[in-house]
Specification:
Keywords: Glycosyltransferase, Transferase. It holds the Pfam family Glyco_trans_4_4. GO terms for molecular function: glycoprotein 3-alpha-L-fucosyltransferase activity. It is a single chain. The longest helix has 22 residues, at about 60-80. The protein has helices at about 10-20, 40-45, 60-80, 95-100, 100-105, 130-140, 145-155, 180-190, 210-220, 240, 255-265, 280-290, 300-305, 320-330, 335-345, 355-370, 380; strands at about 1-5, 30-35, 45-50, 85-90, 110-115, 140-145, 165, 195-200, 225-230, 250, 270, 295, 310-315. The two termini are about 25 Å apart. The chain contains 17 helices and 13 strands. The chain folds into 2 domains: about 1-170 and about 350-380, 3-Layer(aba) Sandwich (Rossmann fold), CATH 3.40.50.2000; about 180-345, Glycogen Phosphorylase B (Rossmann fold), CATH 3.40.50.2000. With about 375 residues, the protein is of the alpha/beta class. Strand 9 (about 225-230), helix 10 (about 240) and strand 10 (about 250) form a beta-alpha-beta unit.
């Protein structure tokens, strides 16, 4: 098979997947369409077409439009030149403008596979549902990372069930800085060895449940439990909530890779008390660092965590239940150690990239042989 992966955004994920796909005998040629500042070309180990401008260069509106028009022309030329059997779209840079690339690929004879990292973009506009219904109708197969996303696609966006394949998200190791030893990380953060450290990580938004976690700490009043909040305060709400608290430390900025590794190495438990979620990048990062996680039993989170085996689930999602769950987990250090060991085992097996690449290649073959009318087998549906 000749495969072209279009990925102007999810860089780490794409490189990890490409490296695993490229190691397969059934992939004759693999090429990635990426941004100019794509940092993982060597790790991906395949051909790379840097069609899109670098993300962090500031441009005026006219410059952005011009740069994007050039990028589309380059991408269209790449599709025509590569003549792929499969165009696998991880994302479109500007979906409203870029969907004609799918038509060009179809004209060139490619089957179309789309990875729905979310059923709709996080910050959806009013036309996105209609646009993505049209896109999903046009492609031959859709890969979702969770059954929750798959069910949302079928129920709310009219995607045919036979098109949808659930393939789990793999660990993201390429951008993860090496984790220091636990005691070293704690010394750097000023966390005592006998303190049970909780970590709430990532861009702070109301749905992520910081208020629930603070209310749970108020109920516990445990002097040996400390919360570290690390991530950008997206709406400016966190500063006021955290003011004057001795049981919380805050790093309200975009956290660099070295600091990220330090936080995860130091934490006893990563807490995700989300009120709503489809798929969590923070959870994937926590699993990459083999951290024990307590997450709300909602959305796709429950599919990435086997309760009491690869993590802990919170149900119902309220402050009282959260407080009780934190106290219980803190009292069972052996359970925490077992969870970390099982996460490591799963990375080498069910959630390892070779296994995920095999399932992805199965979707490619199905799309090629059946034109998208692929069977809904157990293997293609399981996470």
């Amino acid at each position: 098979m000749r495969v072209l992966i279009h990925a102007p955004w999810p860089a780490e994920y794409t490189a990890e997947l490409a490296a695993a796909l490229g190691a397969r005998d059934d992939i004759e040629r693999l090429c990635l369409v990426v941004r100019r500042d794509f940092a993982y070309a060597e790790a991906a180990g395949c051909a790379v077409a840097r069609c899109y401008p670098a993300a962090r260069i500031k441009r005026g509106r006219l410059q952005k439009l011009t740069a994007h028009a050039v990028a589309l022309a380059r991408t269209a030329a790449c599709i025509w030149r590569e003549r792929p059997d499969v165009l696998h779209v991880q994302a479109l840079h500007q979906p409203l403008l870029d969907w004609p690339l799918l038509v060009i690929a179809r004209l060139r004879g490619a089957r179309l596979v789309w990875t729905a990292h979310n059923s709709l973009p996080h910050e959806s506009g009013r036309f996105d549902a209609a646009l993505f219904r049209r896109i999903y109708r046009h492609v031959d197969a859709v890969i979702a990372h969770t059954r929750f996303t798959a069910d949302t696609l079928v129920r709310e966006l009219d995607v045919r069930n036979a098109k949808v394949h659930v393939i789990a998200h793999g660990p993201l190791t390429l951008g993860a800085a090496p984790a220091p030893a636990r005691d070293q990380a704690r010394r750097a953060l000023g966390i005592a060895d006998d303190t049970f450290m909780l970590l709430l990580f990532g861009r702070l938004r109301p749905y992520k449940g910081l208020d629930l976690l603070l209310a749970a700490l108020d109920r516990l009043q445990d002097p040996y439990m400390h919360l570290v909040v690390a991530g950008e305060d997206a709406f400016g709400d966190a500063t006021g909530q955290l003011q004057g608290r001795d049981d919380v430390s805050a790093d309200l900025r975009r956290v660099d890779d070295e600091s990220t590794a330090r936080y995860f190495a130091a934490a006893d438990l990563v807490v995700l008390p989300y009120r709503r979620i489809d798929q969590s990048g923070v959870l994937m990062l926590a699993l990459t660092y083999r951290s024990a996680v307590l997450a709300s039993d909602i959305g796709g989170l429950a599919e990435s965590i086997d309760n009491e085996r690869t993590g802990f689930l919170l149900d119902p999602v309220d402050a009282e239940t959260l407080a009780a769950r934190l106290a219980d987990i803190k009292s069972r250090p052996d359970a925490l150690a077992d969870v970390r060991r099982q996460i490591a085992a799963d990375e080498d097996g069910q959630r390892g990239w070779p296994t995920l690449a095999e399932r992805t290649a199965d979707v490619y073959r199905s799309a090629i042989s059946r034109g998208g009318a692929s069977s809904n087998t157990d293997q293609s549906r399981r996470p």
